[in-house]
């Protein structure tokens, strides 16, 4: 039997997920926690990685998107965080909107004072637009190469340098969603960056490739020096060995041992699937993944048994990075 790649395995999981909990659109509703939290979540805890997918009639999607999710709305996110005992959130503009950040701003406003955001921009985004987003609570801009499978480090370097020019002096950061293999090619830029740099989803590491995979040692070096932050999010993107994801534990502990002051946690709710199943067009509805966010948050206790470290990851570090 052919061994599935990580993307194929995740796509298969999404097809299974789409067969349960169906709504009128015939796809799965955004997940809600099914497992109680196993540890005391400290007050002021923050989920640093979520997305809002608004009503497409009000928030039209970008024509160049590579997938089409159904709605994941602020009231559903409120329910998620009530179950997870969290009071703060960072909403990140997903690739489906291109550089239109309206859905993210809508989600932030609906959530209230406990919300911050990360936007996506390009050369057409004006300084006055950045000013307005800053007043609304945007704290960074995202460079997303992973969703479109872009692994050319030269592309990452150009995008990174352009981003630095736009955000320096604003107190913002640059958020990178890239394959780990790109990190060696941008390491020098990150090390010299005048603004904080945050890597999504364990820096794009894949547990099947081992801890010497290109990019992982370089990421640890950047974290150790304080030049990079890492979101301990999307364990299922680093591994398909769920729901315990035991193979992610060594990576999480390596980050904690390296520099626990530069780590944050995120749910990645509503768990978008950017790889439509074979035969489904990018513009056709694609079911979101069904992951138990209670189990995903409980992973933090396995990664960080010390409550003091958990408070850093869930409360203190996000407060510093996002200005809560």
What can you see in these coordinates?
It is a single chain. With about 325 residues, the protein is an alpha/beta fold. The protein has a single domain (about 5-30, about 40-320), classed as TIM Barrel, CATH 3.20.20. About 35% of the residues lie in helices and about 10% in strands. Strands 1-2-3-4-5-6-7-8 form an 8-stranded parallel β-sheet. Strand 1 (about 45-50), helix 2 and strand 2 (about 90) form a beta-alpha-beta unit. Helix 7 (about 215-225) runs parallel beside helix 9 (about 250-260). It starts with 5 loop residues before the first helix and ends with a helix.
Overall pLDDT metric: 91
CA radius of gyration is 18 Å
The CATH superfamily appears as Metal-dependent hydrolases
Helix content: 25-40%
Classified by CATH, the class is Alpha Beta
Structure described in brief:
This protein is an alpha/beta fold and 324 residues long. The protein is built from eleven helices and eight strands.
Identify the notable features of this structure and list them briefly.
disordered N terminus; alpha/beta; 36% helix; globular; TIM Barrel
Q: How do the strands and helices of this protein lay out in sequence?
A:
Elements (H helix, E strand, L loop, with lengths): L5 H12 L28 E5 L23 H11 L3 E5 L9 H10 L3 E5 L7 H10 L1 E7 L8 H15 L5 E5 L5 H9 L5 E3 L16 H9 L4 E5 L1 H4 L10 H11 L3 E4 L26 H11 L3 H16 L2
Parallel strand pairs: 1-2, 2-3, 3-4, 4-5, 5-6, 6-7, 7-8
């Amino acid at each position: 039997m052919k061994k599935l790649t990580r993307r194929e395995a995740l796509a298969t999981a999404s097809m299974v997920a789409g067969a349960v909990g169906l709504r009128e659109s015939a796809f799965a509703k955004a997940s809600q926690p099914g497992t109680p939290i196993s540890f005391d979540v400290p007050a002021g805890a923050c989920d640093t990685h979520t997305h809002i997918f608004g009503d497409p009639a009000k928030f039209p999607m970008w024509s160049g998107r590579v997938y089409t999710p159904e709605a994941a709305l602020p009231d559903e996110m409120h329910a998620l965080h009530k179950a997870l005992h969290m009071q703060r959130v960072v909403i990140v503009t997903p690739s489906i909107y291109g550089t239109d950040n309206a859905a993210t701003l809508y989600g932030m406003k609906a959530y209230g004072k406990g919300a911050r955001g990360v936007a996506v921009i390009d050369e057409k985004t004006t300084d006055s637009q950045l000013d307005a987003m800053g007043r609304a609570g945007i704290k960074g801009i995202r460079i997303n190469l992973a969703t479109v499978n872009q692994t050319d480090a030269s592309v990452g370097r150009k995008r990174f340098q352009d981003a630095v020019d736009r955000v320096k002096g604003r107190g913002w950061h640059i958020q990178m969603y890239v394959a780990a293999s790109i990190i060696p090619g941008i390491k020098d830029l990150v090390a010299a960056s005048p603004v904080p740099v945050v890597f999504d989803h364990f820096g794009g590491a894949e547990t099947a490739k081992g801890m010497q995979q290109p990019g992982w040692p370089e990421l640890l070096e950047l974290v150790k020096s304080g030049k990079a932050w890492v979101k301990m999010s999307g364990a299922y993107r680093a591994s398909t060995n769920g729901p315990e994801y035991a193979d992610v534990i060594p990576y999480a502990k390596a980050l904690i041992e390296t520099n626990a002051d530069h780590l944050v946690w995120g749910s990645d709710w509503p768990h978008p699937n950017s790889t439509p199943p074979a035969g489904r067009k990018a513009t056709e509805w694609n079911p979101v993944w069904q992951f138990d966010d209670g189990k995903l948050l409980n992973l933090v206790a396995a990664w960080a048994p010390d409550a003091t470290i958990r408070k850093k990851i869930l409360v203190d570090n996000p407060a510093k990075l996002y200005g809560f």
